[in-house]
Amino acid sequence: MTDVTHTFHLSVHCPHPGLAIATIVGDMDVQTAPTLRSGALDIIERGHPRLALDLAQVGFCDSAGLSAIIGIWHAAQAAGGSLTLAAVPDRLMRMLSMTGVDSLLPVHATAADVTDSQPTSADSY
Question: pTM for this structure?
Answer without folding.
Answer: 0.88
